[in-house]
Amino acid sequence: MSETKDRPYHHGDLRRALICTALDMLAADQNWTFTLREVARRTGVSHAAPYKHFQDREMLLRELARIGFVRLGEAMTGAMSSDAPSTRAQFTAAAQACIGFACHNPGLYRLMFSSDADKTIDPPLHDAAMATFGILLRLLENGQRDGSFRPVAISAQAAASWAQVHGLAMLAISHQLLEEKVGPAPIPAALDVLLDGMCRNA
Q1: Are 22 and 87 in the same domain?
Q2: 123 and 194 inside one domain
Q3: How far apart, in whole angstroms, are the C-alpha atoms of residue 40 and residue 200?
Q4: Which residue of 12, 119, 132, 202 could cross-link 73, Cys pair, CB 3.0 to 4.6 Å?
Q5: Which of 11-15, 27-31, 39-43, 181-185 has the lowest mean pLDDT?
Q6: Domain final position from 54, 81, 97
């Protein structure tokens, strides 16, 4: 695990300091094998201090995952806020933003979809994940409403879209999208294939 400089926290802001330290550790090492004791040491507080805010390491990990989904949603929404000429273009922008987020935050992205980010026992995490998934649902609904996408079950289009984009993200962060296997621009090409299947006039 890489060494980072212990940093003090401002009084009354211990929770935020612990989260920032844990996010830095996750980004540096791209895994979440650290302990609360290590997070405390690198934050510059006592070993017992984290327990004032996090019952255990798993609670901290779920909070990191929640932050990840919030940031992912912001990245997707920000990409769509540009002057996209069509729903298809907005979909492509959001999908590329999702994959880009994963590539820039591989450890965090893996955590968000890991068993350590159990959404069934953490309502705030569940809500953040569903809010981000809702961006995709609204895109598909808008596309069907304006006639861009085929009028089939939204759930089927959502499953196909999620599987494709998430799969591309995981392949990208694992450095598996090799040119000799999938060509020089696999992500745009794969998204075009997906959208050609969903659009009315592909």
Answers
A1: no
A2: yes
A3: 55
A4: 132
A5: 11-15
A6: 54
3-state secondary structure of 195: helix
67, 186, 197, 145: CA torsion to nearest 10: 40
Q: Are 8 and 44 in contact (CB under 8 A)?
A: yes
Helix (H) or strand (E) holding 154: helix 154-173
Q: What is the dihedral of CA 76, 78, 79, 84, to 10 degrees?
A: 120
Summarize pLDDT for 135-144 with one digit per residue, the tens.
999 999 999 9
Q: Which residue has the higher pLDDT, 10 or 30?
A: 30
Rounded to two decimals, the pTM is 0.90
Token pair recorded at residue 201: 């006039």
SS3 state of residue 148: coil
The domain total for the chain is 2
CB environment 142-178: b (16+ within 10 A), e (fewer)? ebbeeebbeeeeeeebbeebeebbbebbbbbbeeebe
Measured between alpha carbons, how far apart are the two ends of the chain, in Å? Answer: 49
Is the pLDDT higher at 159 or at 13?
159
Token pair recorded at residue 106: 């591989």
Q: Sign of dihedral through CA atoms 105, 171, 90, 156?
A: negative
Which residues constitute the domain of residue 11? 1-54
